[in-house]
Amino acid sequence: MHVFLLGVSHQTAPIDVREQLDFSSRDVGAAVEALAARYSAGEAVVLSTCNRSEIYVASDDPARARQELVDFLGSYHGLPPQAFEGHVFAHTDEDATRHLFRVAAGLDSLVVGEPQILGQVKDAFQVAATRQCVGPVLTRLFHTSFGVGKRVRSETALGEGAISVGFAAVALARKIFGRLDGRGVLVVGAGEISTITAQHLRAQGVGDIAITSRTAAHADALAAEVNGRAIPWSDLRLALAAADIVITATGSPRPILTRADIEAVTDRRRGEQLFIIDIAVPRDVEASVGEMEQVFLYNVDDLQAIVQENLSRRSSEIVRAESIVSEEVDRFAAWRRSRGAVPTVVALRQRFEQIRRAELQRLEHKLGGLSPEARASVDEVTRLIVEKLLLAPTSQLKALPDEDTQIAYTEAVNRLFELRDESAVPPARDEVDAGPPNRTRSS
Amino acid sequence: MKILPLLLYAVSAVAYAIHFARRDPAAGRAATASLLVAALAHTFVIGMQTMEVRHIPFASLPTAVSTFVWLLTLSYLYLEISTEERAMGVFILPIAIGLQTISALTPGSDKIDPVLESPWFWIHVASLLCAYASFALASVLGLTYILQFKEIKKKHLGYLYNRLPSLLTLDTMNSRAMTIGWVFLTVGVAVGVVWTAQARAVSPDDPNLRAMSLDDPKIFFAVLTWAVYSFGLFARTRLGWAGRRAAWLATVGFLIVLLNFLPIGYFVTTSHTFQ
């Protein structure tokens, strides 16, 4: 069984093509069901985000799977294949595995290391799992990818450090104040970045958000958006005394907060730290305010410098993240190979069991005189002999290092034990699943 | 036997350093586990010494230093487990190792001078060692506060920024450690004064007791320490001296403590040489 992947992403397709092939705005579940029905393995997962539409299937014939998936994409989205075929990429087995693991780790994202993608991969799997459209191969593949995502996040700094001005400001506030619960925020002037920053702060559980603007309507609008309260411009200095975090973003040509303003409220603040984020250009806060003992003053350039530094730190972590991905790809490949031996192993077991039963039946007239306990012991002993005989060949067949060796060995076993008939018959799912831990079909 | 806790502290220091550098949670758990083992081994050694000399071994300076290291480790472990914050370990362990080395390398018997046979003496020493352990923690919290404050203020968010707790957390923990230390210091000094007066009545000719005055450097520095920390607490509550100023006070205060505990305790004092 092979893993096959076909898709488009921000790396291969412009946005108009991605929009045309997007599944997320339509019923992804129905698409997955339609897909799964096409394959004997019945396994399909559709991962669709604004940056990618990818279809993962388990298939015996990857070449045919490619054609089928292109046809499916065309018919599902009502497009001729030539409209998108030049933009799709396709991967098989290890390459497909590596791709998914890189995606889950955030290595294939537009912003490397962004955390949302792991949740999107989990959701995509969940949609398929609830519709019983995944079996052992894709279940194992996706569960491993979740692990890869977690490992990369915990063992590397790939996802660390804020990569937007708003988040950088919140991260700094947390580094100064720890938990932000109940902290007072003052927003002076309502702009795009100040709105985003105030929203981030609200999400962190800050207390009162006071908003003031020379245009009262702007303050009212922002107050409604971030669940804050608008205050008159004349109360600016009063609000300053109660605030822990101040965001300034006015269009004023001259500073609106001077050192004298802050010094005037120092006594009332009783030595409490004040974090001022000055997003305005030209600056709203006099530079000398930053020299005050209890004030941390950051302007938009300072925050952007932090963002840049974090981005470059992330890129230096890519090598470590890639090595985790490679390690997990090898591990998954070994598991997938071990599955290749499963039909032969099952056939071998069936053959041995068949012989055991036949011999017991042949000796029925001699065993008939035994007590039920003795009879059960004979049955148990013969069963244990068969188990022990099969132990080594089973583990050896599952641990073969590559596909060619596996084909040669299974062929040899098939001939030696004349298994051709049995191994041609697909084994029962329970028997196939004996090795891997996940059985999503039943979940 | 004395060397075992030292070796275990060294192993633990390496584990904390690895955790600090890599920020790997598994390394952090290993670091805590190794420090717990070191603390247990140290407890065992102190227990053995207690059984040998029939009192807690802090009548001589080397044993007092070792007991101080043990208390420091226990208070640090309490701080770490209660706050789930492991970043301080990498700063605390060098202090523990340095002091434990001095203790292990210095000969000293814990045979007790008959004049010290008083419960007051034990309360005096135990309180002061607890105070010193709290001040050691406060100084490390203060030092890390200063380093992190500098990074944020100068806008160079570097190595420490991603590894240390927030400024407010460090400041709050520093305040707590200083307050607890001050209480123990006050009890220790007060008990010392009361007990000296009592002992003088019993043994008026004892040279140590005769030397008990502010002229003795050890006593002078102990009073200076008390003055510094008292000012620290007063300044925090009345003058709003939190944050960096409090952090500097904690650092300077502990330097005075160390100066008094080691060089003055070993070489200069004439009042605290009961052997």
Can you offer a commentary on this structure?
The complex is a heterodimer of chains A (443) and B (275). With 443 residues, chain A is an alpha/beta fold. Helix content of chain A is 56%, strand content 11%. In chain A, the strands form two sheets. A six-stranded parallel β-sheet of chain A has the order 7-6-5-8-9-10, sandwiched between helices. A four-stranded antiparallel β-sheet of chain A has the order 2-3-1-4, with helices on both faces. The chains are: A alpha/beta (443), B mainly alpha (275).
Into which percent range does the helicity of residues of chain A fall? Answer: 55-70%
Largest sheet of chain B: none
**Count the helices of chain B. How many?**
9
Most extensive interface, chain pair and sizes: A-B, 24 and 22 residues
Secondary structure: elements and pairs:
The complex is a heterodimer of chains A (443) and B (275).
Chain A: E1 2-9, H1 15-20, H2 28-36, E2 44-49, E3 52-59, H3 62-77, E4 89-92, H4 93-105, H5 116-130, H6 136-155, H7 165-177, E5 185-188, H8 192-203, E6 209-212, H9 216-226, E7 229-230, H10 236-242, E8 245-248, H11 259-269, E9 274-278, E10 295-299, H12 300-316, H13 318-340, H14 342-362, H15 364-367, H16 372-398, H17 403-416, H18 420-424, H19 429-432
Parallel strand pairs in A: 5-6, 5-8, 6-7, 8-9, 9-10
Antiparallel strand pairs in A: 1-3, 1-4, 2-3
Helix pairs in contact in A: 4-6, 4-13, 5-6, 6-13, 7-8, 7-12, 10-11, 14-16
Chain B: H1 3-22, H2 25-53, H3 61-83, H4 89-105, H5 119-154, H6 167-202, H7 207-210, H8 217-238, H9 243-268
